[in-house]
Amino acid sequence: MENKEKKKFLILKVISYVLIYIVLIVLVINTALGYINFNNIQNDKKTYFISDTKTHENDEEVITSYHFGIYKIICVKRQESITYNIKLWFNKDF
Questions:
Q1: Alpha carbon of 53 to those of 4, 8, 14, 93: distances in Å?
Q2: Which residues lie closer than 8 Å to 7 by C-beta, 6 or more apart?
Q3: What is the pLDDT at residue 92?
Q4: N or C: more exposed end of the chain, with fewer CB within 10 A?
Q5: Does the structure show a pLDDT above 70 at 47?
Q6: pTM of this structure
Q7: Inside any domain, residue 75
Q8: What is the mean pLDDT of residues 77-90?
């Protein structure tokens, strides 16, 4: 009986380690692609894996939001300046 419990515990431990590593790998890849996309948007180059783009305009500024994974990149264009921000998916765009 004790051997079965040890085997079950070891199997659960291995499964949990595999899941943790998968989550960490996804976060690292997403962060690296977010950094690359951020630099590409700043330099007006082609972006990779952008899932959605939204634009909001008012009298003073144009706000463009590039959604991608757990990050989104916000570009605020005013008359005299351009500001770039990177935010998590749950932060407001505008």
A1: 53, 47, 40, 11
A2: none
A3: 80
A4: N
A5: yes
A6: 0.74
A7: yes
A8: 89
Q: Which two tokens stand for residue 93?
A: 């765009």
Sign of the CA dihedral 78, 81, 82, 85?
negative
**Residue 69 falls within a domain, yes or no?**
yes
Higher pLDDT, 48 or 41: 41
The amino acid occupying position 59 is: D
Q: What pLDDT shows up at residue 1? A: 54
State the DSSP H helix or E strand holding residue 35, giving kind and residue range, or none if neither: helix 2-42
Would you say the C-alpha torsion 37, 41, 46, 52 has a positive or negative sign?
positive
- 10 domain-assigned: yes
Domains: count for the chain:
1
Task: Give exposure, 62-76, as e/b (b: 16+ Cβ within 10 Å).
Answer: ebbbbbbbebbbbbb
The reply to whether 94 falls in a domain is no
On whether the CB atoms of residues 33 and 68 are closer than 8 A, the answer is yes
